[in-house]
From TrEMBL:
Designated name of the protein: Oleoyl-ACP hydrolase
GO biological process: lipid biosynthetic process
Chain spans, region Disordered: 257-276
Similarity field: Belongs to the thioesterase family.
Pfam families per record: Thioesterase
Length: 276
């Protein structure tokens, strides 16, 4: 990822963006994981200048030396602060799994920071406060058992799954993410949003069943929609072109309507991602 420049990494940028797509990764996820999305952007968003960005949480990727955080709000505050320093553009938040919780807190802070959220996408995620969600305490599992579950879920490169040194290096940040996510989902305080929310769930997801998409509509005063996709928990990496094309149909008219002076932001953070 190059030089460390905060929590928001620019994967691909344009001179005058009409839309900024910010990806909030899953537990243990890195900004680099979404660099492959850039090749699908031009075809998905013809005629729209799109900046693709991805969040790099503390303790992840090139921030490995930093202590991971177990507070979703603290992670979101840092991201919003970085966003205000980027050129103004409508904001499409794409949160995958744990990233959906981060996306909620980013969206809640955006109006006060002068940022316009065009759409919040919650992918493979339970909605905060959903009473149907079974209680989970996976962050308390022993290292070996937690690692086995994460490997079985499909979010870890099989070539690295048997490397004990890799496990010991990345597992603390993954455990912190899971703890933060579980705490956030079980919070008794209701999450209140005013942006449109789109939910992506996969038929083969062992963690988030399709009916879990329903509760998201109760969190926002905006419009809510659902897309039932093929694949499993990490469906976002199966066919990015199809996913991005669907998102473009939902947000492009709105992106063109957003004034370029929306937030008066300053210079961009530049740190092109490379696919890991």
């Amino acid at each position: 990822m190059g030089v460390h420049r905060g929590s928001v990494r620019t994967v691909t940028s344009t001179a005058r963006p009409g839309l900024r797509l910010l990806v909030l990764p899953h537990s243990g996820g890195r900004a680099e994981s979404f660099a492959a999305w850039r090749t699908a952007l031009p075809a998905a968003f013809p005629g729209t200048a799109v900046d693709l960005c991805a969040a790099q949480y503390p303790g992840h990727g090139d921030r490995l030396a930093e202590a991971p955080r177990e507070d979703v709000g603290a992670i979101a505050e840092e991201i919003v602060a970085d966003l205000t320093r980027l050129p103004p553009a409508g904001l499409l938040l794409f949160g995958h799994s744990f990233g959906s919780a981060v996306a909620c807190e980013v969206a809640r802070r955006c109006p006060g920071a002068g940022l316009d959220v065009v759409l919040l996408v919650a992918s493979s995620a339970w909605a905060p406060g959903d009473p149907a969600r079974p209680p989970r305490d996976e962050h308390l599992l022993p290292d070996g058992e937690l690692w086995e579950r994460l490997v079985a879920l499909g979010g870890i490169d099989p070539d690295l799954a048997q490397e004990t040194e890799i496990r010991d290096l990345v597992l603390p940040a993954m455990r912190a993410d899971i703890a933060a996510h579980e705490r956030y989902l079980g919070c008794p305080e209701p999450v209140s949003l005013d942006c449109d929310v789109h939910v992506c769930v996969a038929r083969g997801d062992p963690l988030v069943p399709v009916p879990a998409a329903r509760h998201w509509a109760r969190l926002t005063t905006g419009n809510a929609s659902v897309d039932i996709r093929s694949g499993a928990h990490f469906h976002v990496f199966d066919d990015p072109a199809l996913l991005l094309a669907d998102l473009a149909r939902r947000v492009t008219p709105r992106a063109h309507a957003i004034p370029t002076h929306a937030n008066g932001g300053g210079p961009a953070h530049e740190s092109p991602a490379s696919h890991a």
